Amino acid sequence: MTVPGPDESQDPLAYYRRHGRITDPREEGGMLANLPLETDALRDVVQGLMVHIFWAQRHGLTLSPERQKEVQLRYVSDKLKQIRRLDGRPLVEPRPVEKRLVGNCRDISVMLCAMLRQQGVPARARCGFATYFLPNHFEDHWVCELWPGSRRWVMVDAQLDALQRKILGIDFDPLDVPHDRFLTGGKAWQMCRAGKADPDAFGISDLHGLWFVRGNLVRDLAALNKVELLPWDTWGLIEGRDHDISRRDLSLLDRAAALCQPNNDEFEEARSLYEGSEKLRVPRTIRTHLRTGVETVEL
């Protein structure tokens, strides 16, 4: 794991320039050398390396059960190893779709985040909901935020390749996603708690409701603390249905939502809240929910 620099406790840009345990490429770091510096070119590299598990068939690829398991890879170092096994060429060379790593929105966003951090660009993955996949629905989704010297955090949806942009009719720049098109978990929680949005409009497939929004809020806070876990990993206040959540827990979640905003003003408080709460902080042992059942995982 990368050792924090001495100025990271108060400087959010220094903090997000450095890898966390998920994005650290470890011994595969050499694979991230000589990548383009421009955000659009780096996005293109990611799209040439990965295929979204839900869009594979649209690209003409039928995934075997073994290939589908690649979506369970939690760490960037493991993803890079599999990318190399599939095709040993430099990462800047786009792979045919059958040689691309299988992933989802979280994996694509985390990969872009890792590439940016490797170049010293402040970057962080965000967990929340997108409005551009289905009408009148907030779809479970992840994007990547970076601070490219523009004096603000810019949201990039690296998943939206040319095919997806055409099919979905994307009418905005995926390299600068408007904040009303992607809502962070915290923003979604605030809207639902204030009665400004229907919690049942948030989720994916048949999974929806305030409990789902709660999960993405806690995941987003963890991601802001550089622990970007899988969408089906659970711990602390992610677990349990709404009737299990006490008033004190609701207050804690409201505070977390207020601190998970798209600026740097709440950085120290968000770090302190996360580190100081056993119900929010990712423990060493978590649970992951698979089709075959629930498994306990040591991080």
Describe the structure.
With 299 residues, this protein is α+β, with helices and mostly antiparallel strands. Strands 3, 4, 5, 6, 7 and 8 form a 6-stranded mixed sheet that branches. It has a 3-stranded antiparallel sheet with strand order 9-10-11, with no helix packed on it. The chain has a two-stranded parallel sheet with strand order 1-2. The protein has one domain (12-298). Strand 4 (138-146) and strand 5 (154-156) form a beta hairpin. It is built from 10 helices and 11 strands. The longest helix has 15 residues, at 210-224.
Task: Give descriptors for this structure.
disordered N terminus, 299 residues, three-stranded antiparallel beta sheet, alpha+beta
Write the layout of secondary structure elements.
Elements: H1 12-17, H2 39-49, E1 50-52, H3 65-68, H4 76-86, E2 101-103, H5 105-118, E3 123-130, E4 138-146, E5 154-156, H6 162-168, E6 182-184, H7 185-193, E7 202-204, E8 207-208, H8 210-224, E9 233-234, H9 247-259, H10 267-276, E10 285-290, E11 293-298
Parallel strand pairs: 1-2, 4-7
Antiparallel strand pairs: 3-4, 3-6, 4-5, 7-8, 9-10, 10-11
